[in-house]
Amino acid sequence: MNAAGALFGGVILAWIDEAAAIAARKLFHTTNFATVAITGGIYFRRPIFLGDLVSLQSTLVRVGRTSIAFQVDINVFDSKDPAPVCSVQEIVFVRKDAQGTPYPHGLSPLLITHTP
């Protein structure tokens, strides 16, 4: 926590990385060899304070040949504002073999569910 009683941004980013990694590993059906290639569009709307109960949601937004990308949102329960307190627009994971070389994952772009 910082001097204002808010969670450090770096801790929040570590949570986001972990949430997206879990989602990537589920889709890749592996616990290894999925690495972050890009993280972009990080928005902190308001601090997360001590005692806030939060949830993280990873949403698949893009499927490439060797990569998949997620949007990750952090929400605070019981908040009057339904918008996420923090959002990462895109975090990209690349499927790699044991030597670290990217290779096709075989996932279909049809995995992406679009909501109106």
TrEMBL record:
Q: Which CDD domains match?
A: BFIT_BACH
Query: What InterPro entries does this protein map onto?
Result: Cytosol_ACT, HOTDOG_ACOT, HotDog_dom_sf, Thioestr_dom
Q: Which GO terms describe its cellular component?
A: cytosol
Does the keyword Hydrolase feature in the UniProt annotation? Answer: yes
| Keyword Hydrolase set for record | yes
- Extract the Gene3D superfamilies matched here: Hotdog Thioesterase
Name a Pfam family for this protein: 4HBT
* GO terms for MF: long-chain fatty acyl-CoA hydrolase activity
Q: Where is the HotDog ACOT-type domain?
A: 1-99
Q: Which GO terms describe its biological process?
A: acyl-CoA metabolic process; fatty acid catabolic process
Question: Which keywords has UniProt assigned to this entry?
Answer: Hydrolase
Which PANTHER family does this chain map to? Answer: ACYL COENZYME A THIOESTER HYDROLASE, CYTOSOLIC ACYL COENZYME A THIOESTER HYDROLASE
- Protein family per UniProt: Belongs to the acyl coenzyme A hydrolase family.
Quote the protein name from its UniProt record: HotDog ACOT-type domain-containing protein
Question: Lineage, please?
Answer: Bacteria, Candidatus Lloydiibacteriota
